[in-house]
User: Fold these one by one.
Assistant:
Number 1:
Amino acid sequence: MIRWLTTRKMSAVWELAQGGSPGQALRIVPMAKVHSAQLDLSWRSLEARLPLDELPTFHRAFLSWRGVEGAAEMPLRRVQQRVEAELNKWVQSGEASREGDDLLISRAALSGFSAAEHWLIPLPD
């Protein structure tokens, strides 16, 4: 049995040791950090590809995908704050890296986020 746990300080996997029963032999295994070469997507460039009037809907979809409750009813300013908070969680867990005002992530980090799929298609040269 594996359960995911996300906290402000870290993301971890709770794993039962083999042969253990619930409540026994629990250990925390930190999530693997993403190698910097895999950080191939700029969050700001992803946002820039969206039409401006679609950005709030994209951000709300991102928050819902990340499990933030009530994202659809949040005021826009609060949505922006929560998106930054979620991005910071990725940085803290090693799944992303800050580069100035931008955030570098791997495309794999957005796996399952259907609202981003169209915008992840490379632009033709």
Note: Helices lie at 43-49, 55-65, 76-93, 114-117.
Number 2:
Amino acid sequence: MGKLDRNLEGYRTLAESLERLRQLIRAALEERHGYDWHKAALASPVGEHLQQRQEREVAISWRLPEGSDILDFAGFSDLFELAAADDAILASLSSLAPSRELLRARFLEVEVVRNRIAFARPISDAELEFVVSFGERLRKVTSEKPPIGQSLEREAGSAASSPPPTTEKVAAPSPAPPVKASPAPPPRPIAAAPAPTTEGNGPAPLSRAELTAALERGDSPRLLAALYREITAIADHLWRSGASDPPGVWAVVRESPWYRENFSTLGLKVVSDFYALVEQCRHNSELADDPAAIQDFLKRSNFAQLLMALRDFFKTQLGRDPNLR
């Protein structure tokens, strides 16, 4: 598929997804707030931004189609903020990602691809595959979504129970046909790098204060090195024992302006894909306390290929052993 064909297909898919999201959130707001639903949208954190966008477009062109409302000026990241302000709306999107943070990251990734197409910059086959997969999951969400009142009641009834099932979770690369198990040794984490340690050549993991300072400085090499060490440790523990500690570095980085500003420039999607896969393992009750089941799941999710992609990513970005940074 050529560059133009990929962009055209991506545009068509993203336009359909954007319209489905707008309809879903519009219907939910109407159900919750009635005729004055648009006032609730304007009172949201992105309301003023959307209104300014609408007023600017009206001031420039009077040929706007009739029937447009405030949501017609919202992109994917704007729609996420609108959904995040209402627990019931957010719950209706829960099958798109296993957590609120990963859902925000996925919407940000889609927005990055949309902006690239809007400015006529080429997208890759992997990005096209990602937006097509996102669109298919969203289509299923919108076709099966119950009334928002029922969703809210279900959310309240399950507040003290385990996290909602995530059978439609986001997988990193699209799974290839399962590979028959062989007696070969299990895949090693990225280039078999050692786990972070406070002894020997590697420095101690960054403290929360050091990590925050690096984010404020925009110190990409140090931040990427910290992510490398955390990913290496998590991948090793996940494969060998079927468990891993919560990703402390990622929890801070993914919420930062540095992540949003450098997501496309540095190509951080492969990092996001890794943590999405880890999150699936952590929240899938069928995999709990069963290393063999987790290893089987990782094989089916192309875990080895993902680690190879991460190895190439960090080698390109850092150029030497990240543990020495």
Note: The longest helix spans residues 3-33.
